[in-house]
Amino acid sequence: MSIYYTPDPDDYEGEPRLPPLLTPSEVDAEALAKHGDVHAFAVSAAEQSEVGTVFYSATGGLAQFSVALAPDVTSLKAAQMFHALMIGVGDAIGAIAPPEVEVNYLFPGYILLNKGRAGQVQIATDPAAELSDEPQWMVASAAIRMDTDIEATLASGVHDETSLIEESGGHISTTRIIEASSRHFLAWINRWEQDGFRPLFDAWRNRALTDAVIELEAGAIADWVGLDEDGQALLKIDGQVIGVPAHRFVDMTGPMRPL
Known about the structure:
- This protein has 259 residues and is an alpha+beta fold.
- It has one domain (23-252): Bira Bifunctional Protein, Domain 2 (BirA Bifunctional Protein, domain 2, 2-Layer Sandwich), CATH 3.30.930.
- The protein contains seven helices and eleven strands.
- It has helices at residues 29-35, 38-44, 75-78, 81-96, 150-156, 174-195, 198-207; strands at 23-24, 53-59, 62-69, 103-106, 110-113, 116-125, 138-145, 214-215, 221-227, 233-237, 240-244.
- The chain has a seven-stranded mixed β-sheet with strand order 1-2-3-7-6-5-4, sandwiched between helices. A four-stranded antiparallel β-sheet has the order 8-9-10-11, with no helix packed on it.
- Helix 4 packs across helix 6 and helix 4 packs across helix 7.
- The N and C termini lie far apart (36 Å).
- The relative contact order is 0.18.
C-alpha cells in the first residue's frame, strides 16, 4: 500500500466533505470566487452566520476558507484559535504532501513550505469586544497558494514565495486541502478545550522560524522574543518588549496575494 493512500484520489474536486460541527456556507464557491477575499466576506457575514459555517473558494491559484466561531472565552483567549488553525493547516499539509515538504510557521501568520511562503492564517473578532470581553463572533481563515505564475513571480522580483505545486504537491486538490485542514483544526480545538493552550504553544513553536527579520509598518524592525502563555507575540521594538494578540497580526500582513 502506498504511504500516500487516501480513500479517494487527491485530485478530487467535488464539494468538501466537512467533519461534524462544520457546515458549508449557503453562499456558493463561485460567488465567493467573484468576491475574491473569502476572509473579508466571512467577516462581513459573521454576525448572521451560524457557528461552524465554512466559507471557501479557489480562485487565482489560492485555496481560501474561513470558519465562523462564537467563542465563550475572552477575546485574548479566543485569539488562540489562530494557532489552532495554523497548526491544523500545517498538519494537513504534512499528512497529504510528500515527506520532503518541510512545513514551518513564520510570524505574523505565514505558512512556509521548504522555507518559501505558501500560506497565511488570520483571525478577526468582534471589534466592539475588548481583550477581556467575550466577542460575539470570530472568523478564523486560511489561504494556501496552490499554484504560481512563474513568469509573473520572477518579474515581480519576489523570491521567497512558493506554492504546493512548486513543492511537489501538485496532486493535492483544493477540496482535499480544505477537508484535511478542517479536520485537523477541529482536532486542535478539542485538544485546546481539554488541555488548554500549552499543547498548541509547543506544536506551534516546534515548527516556528524565529530568525527572520520582522518588518513592521513604516519600516520599523522588531526582534522576535517568543509567545507568552496567552499566545500573544512578544516583540522587542526599540528595546521595549510588547505583546501583540493574534487578531492584530493581520494589521501587519494584509490579505494573501496570488502569484
